[in-house]
Amino acid sequence: FWLKRVQRRGITMSFWGYALKPGATHTPKSAQNEVLHLSQACLHKPVDGKNALEVSDDSNSYALMILEKGKTEYASFDLFFNSGKYTFRNKGKSEIHLTGYFEPEALGEDSEEEVAPKKQRK
Fold first, then answer.
1. How close are the terminal C-alpha atoms of the chain, in Å?
2. Share of the chain above pLDDT 90, in %
3. Listed range (14-28, 56-70, 82-96, 99-113) with the worst mean pLDDT
4. Distance (Å, rounded) from C-alpha 94 to C-alpha 88?
5. Would you list the domain boundaries of the chain?
6. pLDDT in the model for residue 6
7. Residue 2 neighbours by CB under 8 Å, 6+ apart
8. Other Cβ atoms within 10 Å of 59 Cβ, number
9. Which Pfam families does this UniProt record tie to the protein (predicted)?
10. pLDDT (tens digit per residue) in 18-74
11. Strand pairing partners for 107?
12. Cα–Cα dist 69/72, whole Å
């Protein structure tokens, strides 16, 4: 797979790509405290038949998309995965190219925390 570090606005991001062979699995690895942003999947030299891309963790498996020659040969995503905790599986006869990037885990971003109002003294 490819890994290229890019510095943008003080945040280091790394391009990621992987060629997932038919019937194969892959568990992405990255530096500590990074998440994988999966951006796109496309068929490489497609053959007839459906190709399912699945993602699984220790206990569950989920279908992300189905690609098929001449119909849907690529898919765009906006999905985030903790590195090393998910495995991608190609359930088809065509190679699937996955692309995205690693970025640092958001520290405090998008987190909502309710704070109880202070009691007023009379």
1. 65
2. 60
3. 99-113
4. 15
5. 2-104
6. 47
7. 15, 16, 17
8. 5
9. NPL
10. 999 999 999 998 777 889 999 999 999 999 999 999 999 989 999 999 999 999 999
11. none
12. 7
What DSSP string runs through 65-78? Answer: EEEETTTB-EEEEE
Q: What is the distance between the alpha carbons of residues 105 and 89, in angstroms, rounded to a whole number?
A: 24
CA nearest 75: which of 84, 64, 90? 64
CA distance 44 to 116: 54
CATH among 2.60.120.340, 3.80.10.10, 1.50.10.20, 3.30.559.10 for 2-104: 2.60.120.340
Query: Over the range 1-28, which residues count as b (16 or more CB within 10 Å of their CB) and which as e?
Result: eeeeeeeeeeeebbebebebeeeeebeb
Tokens of 53: 């891309």
DSSP states of 36-60: EEEEEEEEES--SSEEEEEEE-SS-
* Buried residues in 37-57 as b, exposed as e (16+ CB within 10 A): bbbebbbeebeeeebebebee
- Average pLDDT of every residue of the chain: 84
